[in-house]
Design brief:
Elements: E1 3-9, H1 16-24, E2 31-38, H2 44-52, E3 58-63, H3 72-83, E4 92-96, E5 100-101, H4 106-116, E6 120-131, E7 134-137, E8 150-154, H5 155-160, H6 170-180, E9 184-195, H7 207-217, H8 222-236, H9 239-255, H10 263-283
Parallel strand pairs: 1-2, 1-4, 2-3, 6-9
Antiparallel strand pairs: 4-8, 5-9, 6-7, 6-8
Helix pairs in contact: 6-10, 7-8, 7-9, 8-9
Amino acid sequence: MKFLIIIPAHNEEVHLSLTLDSLQQQTHKDFKIVVVNDGSTDRTEDIIKEYTGHDSRFSTVSLQKSAHQPGSKVVSAFKKGLNSQNMDEFDIICKFDADIILPENYLEKTAEAFKDHPEYGLVGGLLYVEKNGSWEYEGNSNRHHVRGPVKAYRKESYIQMGGIRETLGWDNIDSILLENLGWKEAVLSELHVKLIKVKGADYTIKPAEYYGRYFYFLGLNRGLAYIASSKEALKSKSASFFFAIIKSYEKCRSRQLELKISGDEQKIINRQRWNMLKKKWLKM
C-alpha cells in the first residue's frame, strides 16, 4: 500500500528534522511526503530543502504567511499539500504533524491494519510526551480515538466523508462522520509516537474561549454545549470557567459564524454525542 503523507509546518526548525528522519527510517518504503511550509519565518524552508534535494519521495509546497490558529489553518495547509498530488496514485492519506517521532515500523503496521481489516477507515498510534526524563502516554483523550497529529485515512473513507473540515474540532468531526458511514476507527496501541511539542503552546486564544468556540464549531446544540462546558468546569473546579466557556459559545451563536458541516452532519454529531452521554449515564 502506498502512503501520501502531508505535513503542515509553521516555524518547526527545532522539530521537523526529527519527524522527517523517523519517516526516512521506516521499514515500509512506499510513500510520498509533502511538507507544506505554512509561512515559516525561521529555518524550516532550509530544513525541507535538505530532504527534497536528496530524496525524491520528499516534496514541498510553500504558502504565504498566515495567522496560526488552531484547527482551520492547519487543515487548509494540509489540503494545499493534498491538492498538489494525484490521489489516484495512493492507498492511504496521512495528515501528520511536524513535531512527532514515529517508531520505524509505524507505516508497516498501519498498512497491515488496513489490509487485514477492510472496515478500517482511520488508523493511528498513541501519543507519548516526555515527563521527568521518560516518555509517558499523553492521556488527553480516550485510547480509542486517533489524535490529530497521526491521522491515517483509507483513501476511500477520506473521499466518502468529503475530506476533513477547515474548522476547530475537525479531528473529532472526522471520526463521527466516518462512524456514521460505517467505517471503523482503530488505534494501534503498540505504536508509540513521541510528541515533542505540547499542543496549543503557540496559540494565543484563552482556554475558556477555545472551548466555547470548539463546542460551537463542532456543531453542538445548546444543551450538549452546556453539558460539555460543565464537564470542563468540573475538571478545573471553577464555576467561573463554566460561564466563560458559555459566554464564548453564545457569542459564536449570536454572530451566526459559519459552520463547516452540513445541517445533516450536525444532526449526526449531536445524535452521537447524546448516545455517548446515555451510555455513560446507564453505567452510573
